[in-house]
Amino acid sequence: MPRAVSPSPSFARRRRRVRCLAVSAALLGLVSTVAVVRTAGPSRFSIPPRTLGTATWNMCGVREWNCGGTGSRAAKRQELQRLATRFGAEVILLQEACAADVEAVRRDLGPSWHTAFHPYTWRDRTGRTGTVRCGTAGPAGRAVLSAYPLSAVRTVPSRQPSVGVRRGILCVSIAAQDVRVCAAHLSPPRSDRSEPGRELRDDQLNALVGAVPGRRTVYGGDLNVGPPGGNNPDSWVWPDRPYRVHRECDQGSGRPGPARATHVSRHKLDYLFTGLPVLECRVRDTGVSDHLALLIRVDTGSG
Predict the structure, then answer these.
(1) In angstroms, what CA-CA distances link 232 with 129, 138, 226?
(2) Which segment of 19-33, 59-73, 137-151 scores lowest on mean pLDDT?
(3) What is the 3-state secondary structure (H, E, C) of the chain?
(4) Strand pairing partners for 185?
């Protein structure tokens, strides 16, 4: 499997631990609201190619989440656009993205590009709720940016903190490639401020893998957990299916093993899984986030 790593000298300098966010979030329950979908004209892909390039990237767009020193909004937009124009990503899964920035990049990429966006919400101890915001850049959330039209857009029900930030799972279908894509952002440890010891990632991972088909899918995102096996004490949160039925971008062959870091803490937190043949896996440091971008290319012409 070809691999290319594009590190930046700033990688080692930017340190931000996987955080227990102090921002409050929504009630423990199920996410089931409808995402905002934006399109711009007909798709230019009348004959889909036989491969699909997909990226996942946590943009670190919420400055209050220890992202103040990771680069300007303009720089982040530029790097997001480069994932498409220079690195061949036709579908990009985003976390900690600002709605205004995602929409601006969609416009800049041209009339064939489409987006789906769903905001993060929060709930505090008094019961007050709201939407996490990127200051003047509108809501913060997870998104899918696609060179193909999107259909069957929905959020997947998953267990969330009763007091803390509600992240979640956003799924879309790309009919032109007959592929189901899901973008996830799971809760870090101690996310539920009413019960910090409560583990949510096991339920969330089960919800994620239960939302995708066995073969024609690409899914992942910032899962806030290391790969199973080895010395990872959180291995138990992983269901069998991601590595047994599907294959992770950086998995190689066989069981999960050592993988390249995708976070400045030198841990792998970002993943892309698929049931399709993997043609390429790349890790790229954009230089403007505490997460690296992960890019996969799959063969959509087989099966």
Answers:
(1) 34, 37, 7
(2) 19-33
(3) CCEEEECCHHHCCCCCCCCCCCCCCCCCCCCCCCCEEEECCCCCCCCCCCEEEEEEEECCCCCCCCCCCCCCHHHHHHHHHHHHHCCCCCEEEEEEEEHHHHHHHHHHHCCCCEEEEEECEEECCCCCEEECECHHHCEEEEEEEECCCCEEEEEECCCCCCCEEECEEEEEEECCCCEEEEEEECCCCCCCCCCCCCCCHHHHHHHHHHCCCCCCEEEEEECCCCCCCCCCCCHHHCCCHHHHCCEECCCCCCCCCCCCCCECCCCCCEEEEECCCEEEEEEECCCCCCECEEEEEEECCCC
(4) 168, 222
- pLDDT digit string (tens) for 87-136? 999 999 999 999 999 999 999 999 999 999 999 999 999 999 999 999 98
Q: Which residue has the tokens 């073969």?
A: 215
Q: Domains along the chain?
A: 3-299 (3.60.10.10)
Sheet with 168-174, strands from edge to edge, namely: 151-156, 168-174, 179-185, 217-222, 270-274, 247-248
Structure-block tokens of residue 209 = 């893998």
Write out the two tokens for 216: 């024609």
Q: Dig out the tokens for 271 from the structure.
A: 């993943």
Q: What angle, 0 to 180 degrees and rounded to 10, lies between the N-to-C axes of helices 99-109 and 73-85? A: 40
Widest CA span in the chain: 53
Cα 274 from Cα 242, distance rounded (Å)? 8
The pLDDT > 70 percentage for the chain reads: 82
Instruction: Choose the weakest-confidence range: 44-48, 192-196, 275-279.
Output: 44-48
Q: Are 215 and 276 in contact (CB under 8 A)?
A: yes
Asked if residues 53 and 181 have their Cβ atoms less than 8 Å apart, the reply is no
Give the span between the Cα atoms of 125 and 30, in whole angstroms: 19
pLDDT in tens, 124-171: 999 999 999 999 899 999 999 999 999 999 999 999 999 999 999 999
